[in-house]
Amino acid sequence: MYDIEIENLTKKYGDLKAVDNLTLKVEKGITFGFLGPNGAGKTTTILSMLGLIIPDSGSIKILGNDVFREPVKVKERIGYLPENATVYEELTAWKNLEFFANFYNVSKTEKEKRIEELLKMVGLWDVRYRKAKTFSKGMKQRLLLAQALINDPEVLILDEPTSGLDPEGAFLVKSIVKEERKKGKTVFFSSHILSEVEELSDKVGILVDGKLMALGPLDDIKKQFMELEGYEIKIEAKHPLPELDLEGIIRVERIGNNKAIIFAKNDIREQISDYLTQKGVTLISLEIEEPSLEDVFLKTIYKKE
Ligand SMILES: Nc1ncnc2c1ncn2[C@@H]1O[C@H](COP(=O)(O)OP(=O)(O)OP(=O)(O)O)[C@@H](O)[C@H]1O
User: Which phi and psi (to 5°) does residue 234 adopt?
Assistant: First the structure.
C-alpha cells in the first residue's frame, strides 16, 4: 500500500522543466530519501505534494487523497517542514507550538498534552518558556520539527531537514526521524547529504534535472549500478597471484604480489576461485567492493545526458 503516489508530474517555469514526468510511489511506513543536487527539482516536487504549487500535468495522491482536489483532507493528516523555515522569534517554544496546535480542532487538555510530549521529545522542555530568538539554529530546527508533528501526522514531509546544522544538531534531527519511523510513520525527506540518505532511507530516489534517474532500496540501486558499471572484486591470496586472464575481466590492478583489485563485467568470484585452486593458490579473501552512494550519485549526475 502506498502513502504517496506521484504520477507523471511535470512542472515548468518558462522553458525550464523543473520536474519532468516524475512517477514515484512511497510505501506506508518507510523512510524515503529524495536525493538530488541543487536545483534538481526536489522542492518543486515537495511543494506540489503539498498542493502549494499547481503542476502543468500529472497527479499526486497522499494517503489515497488527491492533493489538489482534497487539500484539506490531506493537510490534516500530514506534517511538513519547509526548507529554510523560520520560527516565531518573539514567541516562546511553548507558544510557537500552541499557535500551530490551534489550527487543529482538539480540546485544550489534549493540545497541552501533545505540546508537552513534543517538547520533551525534541529536547526543548526545559527551555519551553524561553523566546525562540534565544535559541541556536539546531534548537530552532527541532522546534520546527515539533511544529510539523503537532497533528501527529501519518506522513511527514521534510525538505532538507538537517541543512545548515552542526553535527550534533543533525544527529538530533535524524534521531527524531528514526523515532517517527519506529512509530510506523511514513517519512519523505529531501537531501543532498549522501551519508544522511544512506543512514535513514529504506528507499531512495535520485532526481537530476527534474528526472528520476534511480529509484529503489539502496542495495538494489547499488546492484543495478554494478551491473551497469562493472564489479570491483578485491582479492588476497596466501601465495603470489598468477596472471589473471579470465573471461569478463576488464582490468587488474595489482597491489604487491598477493593482492589485486579486479574490475570485471560480472560477478566472477566463483570462476576466480576455481582458477586459483587449479593453480594451487590458496585464497585469504575474495570480496566484492560495493560502490558507495557517492559513487552512484556522482556517476548518475555525470551520466544525465
Ligand atoms: N518560482 C520559480 N521560478 C522560476 N524558476 C524556479 C522557481 N522555483 C524553482 N525554480 C527553478 O527550478 C529548478 C528546480 O528548483 P528546486 O528548488 O525545486 O530544486 P531543489 O532540488 O529543491 O534544489 P535545492 O537543493 O537547491 O533546494 C531550479 O532550476 C530553480 O532555479
Answer: -95, 135
Helix axes 167-182, 137-148, angle to 10 degrees: 20
237 and 118 both lie in a single domain: no
Q: Per-residue pLDDT tens for 221-276? A: 888 888 888 899 999 999 899 998 889 999 999 999 999 999 999 899 999 999 99
The CATH number for 8's domain is 3.40.50.300
Q: Which of 10, 13, 45, 81 to mutate to test the pocket of ligand 1 (most atoms within 8 A of CB)?
A: 13
Structure confidence by residue, pLDDT tens digits, 22-73: 999 999 999 999 999 889 999 999 999 999 999 999 999 999 999 999 998 9
Rounded to 5°, the CA angle 167-172-175 comes to 120
**92/202 same-domain check:** yes
Ligand 1 mutation pick, 16, 192, 213, max ligand atoms within 8 A of CB = 16
CA distances from 201 to 114, 182, 223 (A): 27, 13, 16
- Our answer on whether the CB atom of 52 is closer than 6 Å to any ligand 1 atom is no
Q: Is the pTM of this model over 0.80?
A: yes
Q: Are 198 and 293 in contact (CB under 8 A)?
A: yes
